[in-house]
């Protein structure tokens, strides 16, 4: 009888539990045993941290945010022979194959394990929505929902006080949450890493709106957006240069939204406020879209293990499930395309 492991790695995202439940339920249906690996790759280093999963352990978790397995940004590739250590520990605990649910960092470890001969498959997850090849990543839809609700609320208070509202959202290297959330929430300016703008352009935009009699403004900015005029303020933010095991700085600490709102006020005299949505975008119950696709992909991942098709990942392509090599989703980041970005100009 086969025993599979399930692991969630990297930042949590709404829908992880739906994927765990789906992968596990399919495994039980096939007569497999299931081990939950705790706290991402941290759970398969040193002595390991495993928990046997039963149908009861995955009952009632479909609507829950977070992950019952815990997660971490631990990177085994930073340890000496880390990938081999992970594989030996899994094999030593009778785990024949692994479902790794994660974004590019987690899946890059999975790809290395597959290269080393271990049976491992992936499930795409990141609220940043920037894995290549797939149209869907667990958590993005829910995160966008949080942004849209926030923008609806900020509109009424912005209009009452005739203010500029700067809203900082997540998005490390790409601006998907800002772009889709901003479009759906009616932002008049969306600033993302893919298409840098200058402070002068922002100021010009705000003056033009005032000139047209629009006495408030909603600017959405992705935390990873770069603007030269903001760099001095961002460089002095406490802890802004700290990096995790995959080499990422904590962008929220750099405070791009805060720096932008200060510079807008200085340059225009318009009253400006900043809202940083932060981890609100990652918490809480998953949307129906996240639940359904996490479910479909979780089931598909277990099926791949059952067929001994290691090194692959199920994704969404043209609205259907498609299976591609793990490397295909991590080879590059999917960027917001220009035509989508330009759509926002209609509503400036
Ligand atoms: O990668 C997902 C993400 O939410 C990014 O958008 C963000 O920059 C980062 O994780 C925040 O990470 P942490 O939860 O470790 O602060």
Notes on the protein architecture:
The chain has 12 helices and 11 strands. The chain has 348 residues and is an alpha/beta fold. The strands form 3 sheets. The chain has a 5-stranded mixed sheet with strand order 3-2-1-4-5, sandwiched between helices. Helix 1 (16-29) runs parallel beside helix 10 (288-306) and helix 6 (199-211) packs across helix 9. Bound molecules: 6-O-phosphono-beta-D-fructofuranose. 6-O-phosphono-beta-D-fructofuranose binds at residues 11, 103, 126-128, 170-172, 223, 250-251, 282.
Chart the SSEs and their pairings.
Blueprint: E1 3-8, H1 16-29, E2 33-37, E3 50-53, H2 82-92, E4 97-102, H3 104-115, E5 120-124, H4 140-161, E6 164-169, H5 176-184, E7 189-191, H6 199-211, E8 217-222, H7 231-235, H8 251-254, H9 256-268, E9 272-276, H10 288-306, E10 312-317, E11 320-325, H11 326-330, H12 338-343
Helix pairs in contact: 1-10, 4-5, 6-9
The structure holds 6-O-phosphono-beta-D-fructofuranose.
Task: Describe the structure concisely for a colleague.
The chain has 348 residues and is an alpha/beta fold. Helices cover 38% and strands 17% of the residues.
Alpha-beta content class: alpha/beta
The strand order across the widest sheet is: 3-2-1-4-5
Output the helix-strand order: EHEEHEHEHEHEHEHHHEHEEHH
Q: What small molecules accompany the polymer chains?
A: 6-O-phosphono-beta-D-fructofuranose
Count of helical stretches? 12
Distance between the termini: 60 Å
Percent helix among the residues?
Answer: 25-40%
The fraction of residues in strands falls at 15-25%
- Give the low-confidence spans: none
Query: What average pLDDT do the residues reach?
Result: 96
Q: Describe the largest sheet.
A: 5 strands, mixed
CATH class of the largest domain: Alpha Beta
Report the principal-axis shape: elongated
* Level-2 CATH architecture of the largest domain: 3-Layer(aba) Sandwich
Number of structural domains? 2
Radius of gyration: 22 Å
Count of DSSP strands: 11
- From the 3D structure, determine the CATH topology of the largest domain: Rossmann fold
């Amino acid at each position: 009888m086969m025993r599979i492991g399930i692991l969630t790695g990297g930042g949590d995202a709404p829908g992880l539990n739906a994927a765990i439940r789906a992968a596990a339920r399919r495994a039980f249906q096939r007569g497999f045993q299931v081990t939950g690996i705790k706290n991402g790759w941290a759970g398969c280093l040193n002595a390991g941290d495993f928990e046997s999963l039963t149908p009861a352990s995955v009952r009632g978790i479909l609507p829950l945010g977070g992950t019952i397995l815990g997660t971490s940004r631990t990177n085994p590739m930073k340890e000496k022979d880390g990938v081999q250590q992970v594989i030996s520990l899994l094999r030593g605990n009778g785990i024949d194959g692994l479902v790794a649910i994660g974004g590019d960092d987690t899946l890059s470890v999975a790809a290395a394990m597959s290269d080393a001969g271990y049976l491992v498959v992936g499930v795409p997850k990141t609220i940043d929505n920037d894995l290549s090849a797939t149209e869907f990543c667990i958590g993005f839809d829910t995160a966008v929902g949080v942004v849209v609700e926030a923008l609806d609320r900020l509109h009424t208070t912005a209009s009452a006080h005739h203010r500029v509202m700067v809203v900082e959202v997540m998005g490390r290297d790409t601006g998907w949450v800002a772009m889709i959330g901003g479009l759906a929430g009616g932002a008049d300016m969306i600033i993302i890493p893919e298409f840098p703008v200058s402070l002068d352009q922002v100021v010009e935009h705000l003056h033009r709106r005032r000139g047209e009699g629009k006495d408030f403004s909603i600017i959405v900015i992705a935390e990873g957006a770069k603007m030269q005029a903001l760099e001095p303020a961002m460089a002095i933010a406490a802890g802004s240069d700290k990096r995790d095991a995959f080499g990422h700085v904590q962008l929220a600490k750099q405070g791009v939204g805060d720096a932008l709102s200060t510079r807008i006020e200085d340059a225009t005299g318009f009253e400006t406020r900043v809202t940083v949505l932060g981890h609100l975008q990652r918490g809480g119950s998953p949307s129906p879209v996240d639940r359904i696709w996490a479910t479909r992909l979780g089931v598909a991942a277990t099926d791949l293990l059952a067929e001994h098709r290691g090194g692959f990942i199920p994704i969404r392509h043209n609205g259907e499930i498609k299976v591609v090599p793990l490397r295909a989703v991590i080879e590059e980041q999917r960027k917001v395309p220009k035509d989508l970005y330009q759509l926002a100009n209609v509503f400036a």
